[in-house]
Amino acid sequence: MKKSVFFGALAATTLVSGMALAATLDDVKARGELLCGSNTGLTGFGSPDASGNWSGFDVDLCRAVAAAVLGDANKVKFVPTTGETRFTALQSGEVDLLVRNSTWTFSRDTELALDFVAVNYYDGQGFMVKKDLGVSSAKELDGATVCIQTGTTTELNLADFFKQNNISYQPVTVADDSEAQRQYLAGACDAYTTDASGLAASRATMPDAENHVILPEIISKEPLGPVVRHGDNQWGDIVRWTYFALLVAEEKGVTAANVEEVLASTADEEVKRLLGASGDMGAKIGLDNDAFKRSIAAVGNYGEIFARNIGEGTSINLARGLNALWTQGGLQYAPPFR
Amino acid sequence: MAIEFSRKDMLPPLPPPVSERGAVKWARENLFSTPLNIALTVLGVLVILWLVKSALPWWLNSVWNASSLSECRAIVEASAGAGATGACWAMLRVWWSGFIFGFYPSAEWWRPILSLGLLFAALSPALFAGQKRNLTIVIAGAALFLVVALYLAETPATAFVLSMVLILGLLALAQVAPAKLLWFTLIYPALMLWLLWGGSVWLPIVGMAGFGVLYFVFRLASPFIGLAPAAGLGVVAAALWWLYIDVPVVNQLQGLLPFGIPSIDSDEFGGFLLATVIGVTAITFSLPIGILLALGRQSDMLIVKTLSVGFIEFIRGVPLITLLFTASLLLQYFLPPGTNFDIILRVIILVTFFAAAYLAEVIRGGLAALPRGQYEAADALGLDYWRAQRLIILPQALKISIPAIVSTFIGLFKDTTLVGLIGLYEPLKGITQLVRADTNWKGIYWEPYIFVGVIFFVICFGMSRYSMYLERKLKTDHR
C-alpha cells in the first residue's frame, strides 16, 4: 500500500513537472541555449575534444536544432548522460532533447512517456571475428565464446539469436566497449558482438584491422533517434522537421556551401519552401521561415553530417547502407515538405 | 724467565661464518628456511621474472611524441620491430589538461591552482596547530608551488601579484601570530567557492556575513534566553538572511562596486579538479557533522538520539551510488521545475552525508574505547557537557580514531570516481572514456588508467603518511 502511495506521488510529481515543462520552445528561447542530452563519449557520434568542443553525428543534429530555434548552432549546452541517467534527465527537464544513440522501442516510447521523433541512424547488432577463425556466417559460431556488454539489449538479442538457430555459445561479459576490444584482441573470446557501427569503429582502430571481419548477419533492429518528452507536440514537430529538413536537403542537393546559391537560383517549389523563400513553413511551427536554411548552412545536409563524422574516409569508416536515402536504396525517407 | 702465555692485547673478533651474516643469513632465514619456503621463493621469483619480461618492453618502448595512437604504433614498430608493443604516453600531451582540469577554461586555470595552494595554507593551522616550524614549511611550500604553477599556467599579472601578496602575507602571519591563521581557515571555504565558480565578489562576502548574523544574534540573545535557544534563534536569523536579504544586497553592492571574475559552469569542471573539489569539501564538512552525529547517538535525549541513529543507519544502509543517483535524478523530480540546483553541489552534499555517517560510527568507536573514568572525571571537575566533550573526551576519542578516520577519508576520496556513473567527468572513467572516444586515441587502454592511478596513489599515500605522523606526534602513552 505504502509503495503504491509513493509511486502515485512520484507519478503525480512527474505529471505536474511535465505540464509545467510543456512549452519547451519558450523555455529554450528564454534561456537562449538548447540543453541537449548527449553521450559521455562515443567515437563519431558525440564526444568533446580536449578543449571541450563537441563534435559527432548526434551532436550535429543538436546543433541543427539550435540553429533553427535560436539562430546559432553554437548555442547548445551538451549534457553528458549515461545509459542509466539519459531518460530520467529528459523526463525531469534537465535536457530539452536527447540525441544519444538511443534505440526506439515500444516500452520506451509508451511506458517511459517519451517520443522518438525520427530515426537518424539505422543500426543493428552484428558480430566481429578474427579472420583465421575461418567463419563466414554467424550461424557457424556454434560453441564460440562471445564478448558482450552487460545490461544492454544486445545481451537479449544474442540469446535469442543463438536459441533460434539451435546453437550454443559461451558469453564473456565486459563492462564497456574498450574493455570488450581488449578482451577480444587478447583472445578471451572468439567473437565480439555489439551494434554494427560500434564494431566498425572498434575495427578501425585495431592495430591489425585487416585480420578481423564483421560477419554479414545483423541480428537485431536498432533504430537510433532523437527523443523528446511526451506531451509537447510542438517541440517534437520542431525536432522532427529539422531532421527531415536535413534529409530533404540531401535529396535536393542543397549543401552547407551552396545553400545561398540554391536559394537564389532554384525553381523547385519544395526547395523554396524548405529554405523559406515561399510558404511559411517555419512560422507554422513557431519558428521563422529561415529556420531550416540556417540549420543546413550551419551543419550541412544529412549526407554531409554522415560523411564528416562517421562516413567512409573517417576513422570509423561506415558505409551508408540502410542509412542511404530512399532514392538510393536506403531507408532514410522524409515526408514531403508542403 | 717464565714464558708468558698471555696476550698483551685483544685479538680482533673473527667475522661470523659466511652462513651466519649478511645477505646470506638474511636469505637463509627469510627465503630458504623450510622446503615450503624454498618452493615459494622460487615460485615468487619466477612470477616476478615473468611479469617483468612481459611488461618491460612495453614500458621501454614508450612513445612520448605522436599525434595519434596509430602514429604511436608506427613509431614503436619502426624502433622495436614488427609486433612489438609500447606505451603511448603521447596521449597525455593532448589530454593532460582534461585529466587535471576537465574543461575548465585555460585562461582561468590560475583559479583552481590558487585554490589548491591556499588550501594547504588554510589546512595547516588545523593540521599543525601552533607549530611555527611546520606551519612555515607548509605555507612556504604552498607559496613555492604557487609561483611555479601560476607561472606555468600563464596567469594574468594582476592575479599573479595578488596571489603572491596573499600567500606571502599568510607566511608572515605564520611568523608573527600563528594562532591568527585560523581565521583564514574559516574564510577559506567561501574564498574557494568564489575562486572556483567565479561571479561577483560580493557573493561570498555577503554569504559569509550570514555567519556573522548568526554569531551576533547568538551573542545578543544568549544572556536572556540561554545557549541552545539563542543558537536556534541565530540559525533562524542566518537562514532568513540567506533566503531573503542575501540576493538583493549582493545585487545592490554589485551595482555600486562591480567587481568579479568570470563565472564558470559546473559542467566545465572535470578530472582531478572535480575529484578534489568533491573530496576536500566532503572531507572538511563530514568531520564536524560526523562528530555531532556520534555525540548525538550517545546522547540521553530521545529525539536527538533517534534522529542521529536514524540518519546514520539510513545512510549507511544505502550504497553511495544510490545516493548519487538520487542527487542526479530523483531530486530533479521533487524540486520545482526550472530550479537550477547545481549538480556538483548536490553531489557534494550527499557525499558529505555519506562520509559523515561512516565517520560518526568511527568516532563512536573512539568514544566507546575511553574508560568510563574519563567521563566521570570530567563530571567530577564540574565541567558542563560541551566543555567536558571539548576538553576531555573528544581529544582522546579522536586520537584513538585517527587511523580509521583517515581510512574513511582516503576511501571517500577514491569514491569520488563514482560520480562518473551520473555523467560527471571524473578522471578515472569520465575523462578516460573521452580519451577513448577521441578518434585519434580510440583503442588506447592501459595508459590513462596508469596515469590516473599514479596520481591517486600519490594523494592517498600522502594522506596515509600524514596520519602516521599525527599518530606519532599525539602519542602520549608508553606502550
Structural description of this entry:
The complex is a heterodimer of chains A (338) and B (479). Chain A has 338 residues and is of the alpha/beta class. Chain A folds into 2 domains: 2-122 and 223-328, D-Maltodextrin-Binding Protein, domain 2 (3-Layer(aba) Sandwich); 125-220, 3-Layer(aba) Sandwich (D-Maltodextrin-Binding Protein, domain 2). Chain A is 41% helix and 19% strand. Chain A has helices at residues 2-20, 24-31, 57-70, 86-91, 106-110, 153-164, 177-186, 196-204, 233-252, 259-265, 269-275, 281-284, 291-299, 302-309, and strands at residues 34-39, 47-48, 54-55, 76-81, 97-103, 114-116, 121-123, 125-130, 144-149, 169-174, 191-195, 212-214, 222-229. In chain A, the strands form 3 sheets. In chain A, strands 1, 4, 5, 6, 7 and 13 form a 6-stranded mixed beta sheet that branches. In chain A, helix 6 links the parallel strand 9 (144-149) and strand 10 (169-174). Mean pLDDT of chain A is 87; it is low at 1-21. Chain B is mainly alpha-helical and 479 residues long. Among the domains of chain B are: 86-100 and 267-333 and 352-362 and 400-479, Orthogonal Bundle (MetI-like fold); 105-198; 199-261, no CATH class. Chain B has 18 helices and 2 strands. Chain B has helices spanning 22-30, 35-60, 69-80, 90-101, 110-127, 132-152, 157-176, 181-197, 202-225, 227-256, 271-298, 302-317, 320-334, 343-369, 372-380, 385-415, 427-437, 446-473; strands at 199-200, 260-261.
